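== Folding the chain ==

***
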Amino acid sequence: MKKFTYIIAMISIAIILIATIFKASHLAGAAILITLGFGLLSFVFLPLAYFNLLKTTNDKLLKFVFLTAFISFFIDFIGMHFKILHLPGANTLLLLGIPLPFVLFLPTYIYYHNKRKLKTDLNFFGVVIFMVYLCVFSSFLALNTSKNVITAFSHASHEISKTNAFLASADKQSDFHLQAQELVHEIDEIKIQLIVLADKDNIQLVTSDENINYFKISGKDKNLSIQIYEYAGLNKFNQNFEVFKSKASHLKSDNTINRLLNEIDMYRISIDENEKPILTQLKLISSLNVLTDWQNKILFIEYLSAQES
């Protein structure tokens, strides 16, 4: 049984390491590998290790130490899994999981160590070092986007919006131009819906001409669910964009136009059917920045198509 437990541990760690590479490289299957790796670690390895340890002693206090370790690390591993995949409840699990080993497991372990009058050994220091490592790793996962990064995104969204307004001001009435304008307007509606769904008070930051005060938005660092994006109109936009994309490709085969279309697709289309589009995995302010960039790209594609025709 012990040998099987060690094998499960090694397989779990190997899968998580491979999944990390896949996730960092945006390769298909990353979410499945992460779920498999953390699933084996949390639901197979930890229970097996716990029951194996129970068999090694009749000391009730030591058994309680094992129980606190199992509970602490189980919640931490599940929290890491949720955070990496941007699942709902991730922050709550990590906020609970980060201090739990220190307020539950470590005091119990130290009490047991002193109660049984054990000598301080390498095992004791190893436990403390591992606890510090777990705390640092979990804390990095739980960190919110820094204020400077959020401010930078606010500036970017504000400035690109002004550029888009200038590009859109050209007096053209071609069908393709009108189609581009309609997509830009749809994106404006999506952005407004997103900020209002993030915090209803944000509606006060939208002007009558659909301009948004990006600097004062509440909930800039929120991760919104894919259902919220769909409710905001992302599916409708995707359908209309496919028509626009087909027409743009038909009007002129151009490397720049193809690159711009692909850059939009990279954020709105999932590479793996089990993964959410990258757009829906971002913080709200990052998503708004991407959506504003889409508007710029759509108008530029329309401009290039007109130049080439």
Observations:
- The chain has two domains: 2-142, 147-308.
- The chain has twelve helices and no strands.
- The radius of gyration is 26 Å.
- Residues 2-142 form one domain.
